[in-house]
Write a structure and sequence with these properties.
Layout (H helix, E strand, L loop, with lengths): L8 H19 L3 E7 L4 H14 L3 E7 L2 H9 L5 E3 L6 H6 L28
Parallel strand pairs: 1-2, 1-3
Length: 124
């Protein structure tokens, strides 16, 4: 008797089901954002990265706290996705940059001068 139903259909069906269920874990995009620069914002960035990864595990962050000048050099060399610096790039640096660089303020801090006041000095 001639079967209209080929014998290998169950095997093909099993492979199709396996492909459907296996694909999401294999296709999940992994994004690595690299940054470098100022040491001052590192604790804040570290917290932000940690909190973000709780919501999207497909994104990873790497930040090298190498100083503001290092952040500027790394972004200008296109070695990182973002550079952190205490000061913005100069117009001359921006003109030489390979591509557009945006300045986005992220963390603000203050410099405080502390000194010892001898006893008996007037307070202000």
């Amino acid at each position: 008797m001639n079967h209209a139903f080929p014998r290998n259909i169950p095997a093909i069906g099993a492979l199709a089901v396996l492909a459907i269920f296996a694909t999401p874990s294999l296709v999940t995009a992994q994004v690595m954002l690299k940054g470098a620069g100022a040491t001052f914002p590192y604790p804040v960035y570290s917290r932000w990265f940690s909190e973000y990864q709780k919501h999207d595990v497909s994104v990873s962050f790497e930040y090298g706290y190498i100083g503001s000048g290092g952040g500027q050099k790394e972004i200008l060399a296109r070695n990182v996705d973002f550079g952190a610096s205490d000061a913005p790039l100069s117009d001359e640096q921006l003109a030489k940059a390979d591509g557009k660089i945006l300045h986005i303020p992220t963390v603000a801090g203050a410099v405080v001068v502390a000194c010892n006041v001898p006893v008996g000095m007037p307070s202000y």
